[in-house]
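Illustration 12: F-box domain-containing protein.
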Amino acid sequence: MEADPPPPASALMEELVEEVLLRFPPVDPASLVRAALVCRRWRRIVTGPRFLRRYRNLHLHRGGSPSPPMLGFLASAGAGTRFVPTSTFRPAPLFGGWRALDARHGRALLRRDTGHDAPVDCELAVWDPATGRRTDLPRLPWSPHYPYSWNAAVLCSASTAAACDHLDCSGGGGGHFLVVVVGTNHEEIFAHVYSSETGTWSAPASARHPDDNVEFAPSALAGNALYFAFQTGAAALEFDLRTREMAVVRLPPPRFDWQRVVLAARDDGRLGLATAGKSTIYLWAREAQRPGDGNWVQTRAIELDTLLPAGAISAFPDVVSFVDGVGVVFVRTGDGLFTIDLKSLQVTKLSRDTAFSSIFPYISFHTPALEVASTGEGPSSGA
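Figure caption equivalent — predicted structure in token form:
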């Protein structure tokens, strides 16, 4: 039996080029753009759906992390939000006085005030930093009960059924999203859900008032629920994405009154949180998954004196954000903003500026768009 003839030399060369390009680091998306500009053949490889899928899968497994890389973060200060890059990625410009409320699955949730703080008075939009595409949401349904506190989150709509790996659900690659708004008024705690598939808000869900108010702090998606911190730091709101039911989850006893609590999803899928002491970061994990159960265990205590540069802790440290699934925590001190990699304990100083109210990491793979590849502004594809 005769053996099959060998493939043409050009096909072998194309396969070799693809294998090399696959190994370009995801934290340097500009390198893929430059490669796509070398010639038409390379552009066809880099912008092909097969390459994009292989690239994302390869780097998820090589990195040992269930999440894409952090390409930057959205920092809200004053009346606006700016994107601070931690890679070569640069987003399309964002104008118009928008402030970030959340970022997840390659999208950012934005708000623009209209003179009032209530969610029924604010303009809300979902923004894709990779493409610059902004989806303006309809106003929330009017309610006779004015909310005293509220927060919101954005996520891929397939998260409710665990049916998406989120590699292709943003950056113009299709896929619908949900926006969840929760808050308190003088009678109850409420929740609304917006679906991009229907273009409408759901009827409100409600539960008994928690005797606390929702904090404007990063939410966490753990399992099939979203979690929002309360202002006192003693509890969090659990919103079940499938049943749309709400419960109050008790948090570890605070070390001081009104401590800042940052919620996050751990690598194992459980809900976690981080708080700061005088010079220590404390990490916790939730053990039980019964609604409202607050069985917590402290997993680590990280001494900042031995990690941060000398003199960095000139003021009480503050945990301001946590990168879900990546294991990176943002810490603010009087000397600036730092990230700490929880696996390697590598510390990176990001900025001397500390005048911001919130930080939302932007986690995504960024690759050239199918239509055009450019090192400047233009269409692109993220996930």
